[in-house]
Specification:
- The complex is a heterotrimer of chains A (about 110), B (about 120) and C (about 280).
- Chain A has about 110 residues and is mostly helical.
- Chain A is about 75% helix and about 0% strand.
- The radius of gyration of chain A is 22 Å and the shape is elongated.
- Chain B has a single domain, classed as Cytochrome c-like domain (Cytochrome Bc1 Complex, Chain D, domain 2), CATH 1.10.760.10.
- Helix content of chain B is about 50%, strand content about 0%.
- The N and C termini of chain B lie far apart (about 50 Å).
- Chain C is mainly alpha-helical.
- Helix content of chain C is about 45%, strand content about 5%.
- Chain C is built from eleven helices and seven strands.
- Chain C has a three-stranded mixed β-sheet with strand order 6-5-7.
- The radius of gyration of chain C is 20 Å and the shape is globular.
- The chains are: A mainly alpha (about 110), B mainly alpha (about 120), C mainly alpha (about 280).
- Chains A and C meet through helix 4 of A and helix 2, helix 8 and helix 9 of C.
Amino acid sequence: MQKRSIISTLLLALLLALGSTALLADSHGGADPRAGQVEQAINDAEAAREKAGSVDGEWRDTAKMIESARKALAAGEYDKAMKLAREAHQQGVLGYEQAMSQQELRIPSYLKY
Amino acid sequence: MTRIKSMIGTAAGLTVLLAGTLAQPVAAADGVSAVTEGKVLSEDRKKGNCLACHMMGDGAYPGNIAPPLVAMQSRYPNKEKLRAQIWDATANNPDSPMPPFGKHRIVSDEELDKIVEYVWTL
Amino acid sequence: MKKILLTCAALILTAGFGTATASTPEEDKAAWDRFYQQRFPNVPEEDYNNGVYTIDKVGRENWEAIEEFPPYEPFIDAGREMWETPFANGKGYRDCFPNGPAIAGNYPHWDKETGMVMTLPLAVNNCLEANGEKPLKYKKGPINNILSYIAFESRGQVVNVEIPGDDPRALEAYEEGKKFYFTRRGQLNFSCAHCHLQTVGMVLRTETLGPAKGHPTHFPVYRSKWGTVGTLHRRFTGCNKQVRAKPFKAQGKEYRNLEYFLTHKSNGLELNGPGARK
């Protein structure tokens, strides 16, 4: 009884997994065209992250997002990968802009000299 | 028996998960649910986390760094002005410590709309 | 006419420089002291080395109860053993620090020879490496034992960070630390000053924000959240992560210069490390 139920669970899970892979693959029309776009988006994000880092403006989670995007791309999850890459890209741009806006030291007015 | 139950549970769980990832969520939030969702978002420590600094509604353990969020409709002429303040408070006051929730994408545009709906009711 | 124009130009130039960053370390220190004095008129000057418990009365009671059985004690003992155990070459920490172990009051200081801010953890690792030993990690682990022991032995020494005038690079390092302190960072867009000057003493959820003055006197610190003792630069890392900025390297230039600037603002306070915090 126990063994059989485990086997059935596994089988069911396998079926579902296969089904979902098929669905995913189907919804993205086979293989590559989107993979290239996602890869480009990831490269853009990485460049933006490095640019922010070059002025000490990198944010905490940007590199993690890019890493997750790479993993999602490898797993064929293009939508997820694209979303992560775009968000990381935005973070890189914003972090750079933030650092540039802070180039000059401004002593706050509550400190009385 | 328990095994069968857990098996069904696992299968159901997987199906729900799959359905969740495949179906695009449709955000057809009417006013009431936007306010309710906005309250949840505004209290979420990883989203609005307004309570860290503001007293707000019945939220537990509010901070006192910033003014209590009360009488919002008399403090802001309209929702757009309120939204702009949450989007980037430093636009009005360069010394403001308030994080620019919209500009820095701490919350998404849709999430910000819902937070505005909730805060507007306070 | 030409003269008037020149005078005008000169005036504009001076004004321009005047509003920028021209305050000296002494002027900065005086401005900070004035600020805290006005914000907390009833806090005695010498009490600031108790950090947030200077101003958080309820927290202070809990803290004083913890201090009756200090959680950092085993780390001091382990550090004493490190101090007394010879290296493989037969030498020991004593050979690097002949005035030791009570030496924390000498750090951080400007090291003219290397042209950098010398911190105690850096000096410890320099000593180890000079004797063929493996350097210690700068945030967690055994470095906290030796630092706890040195801090404990140095209790009562008075912070006296100097920015020597005979090496312009020292002032440069100080200025970089100052710039760091007032720079907005991370997705949440906070500078150090937003929490520890501008809104100091206010409550973030349930946590009182502590004054910057007195922050570095009690490191390394046992934090209940960590369940162990950690270094000042580990705490800097945590602060940067909290504002969702990518942290800098422990004992890298950024954090060393920050330590230099920040510790200068505690000049005159007694060292009281290791400390215990929530």
